[in-house]
């Protein structure tokens, strides 16, 4: 796991979960997200741009990421 991911572990797991529920039909939450046409933008397919956005916009542990 890269340094950015280690230093921002909570953001990394939020990103992973976001991708799972929007892109993995085997994920239990997929029916509420990916199956309804909710997607992740091309830029956020990579962790680094998502992490930079989250930090720039005041991410704090305990916040939720949703549509």
Tag the structure with descriptive keywords.
mainly alpha, 67 residues, globular
Structure characterization notes:
By secondary structure, this protein is an all-alpha fold. It is built from three helices and no strands. Helix content is 45%, strand content 0%.
The shape is globular
What is the overall number of helices?
3
Order of helices and strands: HHH
What structural class results from the helix and strand content?
A: mainly alpha
Give the integer mean of the pLDDT values.
Answer: 93
Low-pLDDT residue spans: none
Q: How much helical structure, as a percent, in the residues? A: 40-55%
Rounded radius of gyration (Å):
12 Å
Query: Beta-sheet strand percentage?
Result: under 5%
Summarize this structure briefly.
The protein has 67 residues and is an all-alpha fold. The protein has 3 helices and no strands. The chain is 45% helix and 0% strand.
